[in-house]
Amino acid sequence: MALEVEEVLSLWREAERLLDGLPADAPERGVVSAQVVSLKQIYSRLTAGSDATDDVLADSHSAVVSAQTTIEAAKRGLVAS
């Protein structure tokens, strides 16, 4: 489970850095901001003190994959600008 926590924390930080670098009027801001909130919630669930269940880990994995896709798309949009 430590690997999952590390992956979520890394992605959360990446999303925050990306959000900080996006122009205020960038269309990606809303979705990246939502991913930051989602990753923060996942991190909290994974580190809540009790062992994460298989359901929490599966949900977390799905959310991480979604966040990775969103972040990569936003980066491509930023580069294309």
Description:
The protein has 3 helices and no strands. By secondary structure, the chain is mostly helical. α1 packs parallel to α3 (54-80). 21% of the residues are buried. The mean pLDDT is 84.
Counting DSSP H or I runs of 4 or more residues, the number of helices is: 3
Structural class: mainly alpha
Largest sheet: none
Q: Average the pLDDT over all residues and give the rounded result.
A: 84
User: What is the count of structural domains?
Assistant: 1
> Total number of β-strand segments?
0
**Poorly predicted runs of 5 or more residues:** none
| Strand coverage percent | under 5%
Quote the distance from N terminus to C terminus: 38 Å
Gyration radius, in Å: 13 Å
Q: Assign an overall shape.
A: elongated
Helix content: over 70%
Compressed to H and E, one letter per element, the order equals HHH
Secondary-structure blueprint:
Elements: H1 2-21, H2 29-46, H3 54-80
Helix pairs in contact: 1-2, 1-3, 2-3
Relevant terms:
3 helices; mainly alpha; 81 residues; single chain
Briefly characterize the structure.
The protein is mainly α and 81 residues long. It has 3 helices and no strands.
